[in-house]
Each structure stands twice: as structure tokens, then as C-alpha cells.
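User: Once you have settled down, look closely at the record that follows, taking as long as you need, and be ready to discuss the fold:
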Amino acid sequence: MNFHSLDYFLVLARENNFTRAAEALHITQQSLSSHIAGLERELGCTLLVRRTPLELTYAGRTFLRYAESIGQTRQAMEREFCDISENQKGELRVGIAYTRGHAIMPRLIPAFQRAYPNVAVQLLESSNEGLQKMLLDNTVDLAIANFPHALPGIELEHFYMEDIVLCLTDTLLERFPIDLALCAQHAAQGDFRPMQNLPFLYCSAEDVAGRIGRELFHASDFQPRRMIRSENVETLLALCDAGEGVCLCPRNLVHTAIPPEHLSHLHVLPLSDAARYPMHFGYHSRSYQWSVISEFIRIAREQIESA
């Protein structure tokens, strides 16, 4: 049994399809099938029910558990010897929300790769809840997210404080005249009633901004007259920029998504302390931690502090 066969089986188990797995591995289906058949001969068991989609047999599910454990142990060994030899190489998988990655990564990745040119960075993007699941599933080595609850086997380190703001434009105010100063005063106290007639734009509850927005509305007994929801904060900010509604979003994403020449027509209203939340680095608690993860965290903090 060799590591290639283990790796191929893990990808096939994930994809549940020979065609997709072969494409992901950049090998032919015939070669993949040959490796899996070799594993089955060596183990003396059928690992797959060969239909669409593929299913693992009991033996296949048992072998998957061992293959995952062996893969994690091998990865830890390779990374520890990279540290010992001071020859850092490999791949660091980082999970982050799409828009937050757009705001942070263009400065962070170049700084990291200047220090570690032989370490590839794979960015995996998802919602806040999705990132936590990816971390638990070992799909990522490091997640940058809001963790409202502790996760088993996961270490958390503080990154920075993020706050939700309300954004609206002069175009919206022309359509829906309101006392902006009064709205700002009430919003800072968690009261949205002066904006009762305005349409609101916000993310799904899986996103941290969407979750906190709903909590704020519930706490103030406020129900927006009209709501537009999207999974993508950039889409919501584009709609806000077009005057379609009030957008609930993290403050540090505003300047990323709205063109600089439009910012003079944008009003950003701060909210109460309940709209502030910590962003953390999350990674697996292991007996040996790859130093590259710590270095990525260090460089990320430097970039945030210098912004």
C-alpha cells in the first residue's frame, strides 16, 4: 500500500464519482480505477459500490477512517520536518468569507509569500457557518471567522474587532425622505424605528452580519417594511450604492465594494456595541503545530495593524 493510493481513495470518497475524482487528481479514470482495485486486492475487501453516485461499503467506510488518520499523521510529520530542516514548503489551506478575503488578502498574501515563497496558499471561501464546518472537517488548516461558540478540538486566537454599520445613499434618501440625524442617533442606541419605511438589505443568517442584524432587529422589536437578502455582501453593497436600500454590513468591507468616487454620496451610520464582534483565527489543536500557521497569523496581524 502506498500514499498515492490512500490519497486517491480519499479524493474519490469525497467526490463520489470517478470522473470528478480523476479530474481533481489530474490522472485518467483508468489509472484511478487501477489504484482502487489494487487497494481492494490488498485489503481483500470491496471498498465501493460502483454506481452513480458511488457509495462506500462498510469496509470502505472503515478504510476511510484509517486513511484520514494516516493522511493527517503524514501531513504532520512532513510539516514538522519542514520546521526541523528550516525548509518550509507545502500548502496552507485558509478559509475565509469571500468579501472579507477580498478586503484582507490582497495585502496579506504578497507579504506572506515574500517570507515563505515555497508555501502555496489555497483560499477556500464560504459563509461564517460554512467556515466552521470546513475547519471541523479538516478541509482547511486555518479559518478566519467569527466563532460565537467554542468548537471541539479547535484553538482560537483573537484577530481584530469588526463592527456592523448601516449604509445608505443620497439616492435612497431622495426616494424615502427621513431625518438622517435622528436615524443616526437612534441607530447608535439600537433603535431602528425611525427607519421603518426604508427597505433593508442584509445577508442570510449563516453569515455573521446577517445573524447579528437579525438579533439587533429582534432586540428592538423592529420588522423592516421590505427586505432584500443575498449570500453576497458585495451584491448587497452594490444594491445599496444604487439606492435600493439600507445595507447592514461590516464597516471594513464598505471601501472594498463601493467605488471610491461614490463614497461621497454614502452615509455610514454606526450602531450600538451589540453590533461589534471579534474575528478569530481558528485551527486544530495538535501535539505539533506547523510553524507556518503561526507565521501566517503573525503577518496577518501586522497587515491589519498597519492598514
Summary: The CA atoms of residues 252 and 306 lie 14 Å apart.
